[in-house]
Write a structure and sequence with these properties.
single chain; about 100 residues; mainly alpha
């Protein structure tokens, strides 16, 4: 049931990510600049190789937030995997049940 919509959800999330990045670039380009702007730019990221996250950041605070986001993503991935491999979604992909029913 939910597996029917996962492809569309994935494509929608990728498009949403591109839109957010594009809007962020536009916002930064047209944001008024101050002379004595004392803000320090910080950045971080997550690279997921299977269920293993690689986290990097320009400060400990950013690394902590990237770790939290990575853990949330890994938990969601694990829950979706468990849901798809269980019989909760009503589709049984087992060859045994197909040939012996």
């Amino acid at each position: 049931m939910i597996s029917q919509y996962l492809d569309e959800l994935g494509i929608l999330l990728i498009m949403l990510g591109f839109l957010i990045v594009f809007l962020g670039i536009i916002y930064e380009a047209f944001k008024p600049k101050e002379e004595n702007e004392g803000n320090k730019t910080q950045a971080g990221g997550i690279i997921l190789i299977g269920p293993i996250p690689i986290i990097f950041g320009s400060s400990k605070k950013i690394e902590k937030w990237m770790l939290i986001v990575a853990l949330i993503i890994v938990v969601i991935m694990a829950l979706l995997y468990l849901y798809e491999t269980s019989s909760l979604h009503g589709i049984n992909y087992s060859f045994y049940s197909y040939y012996h029913s």
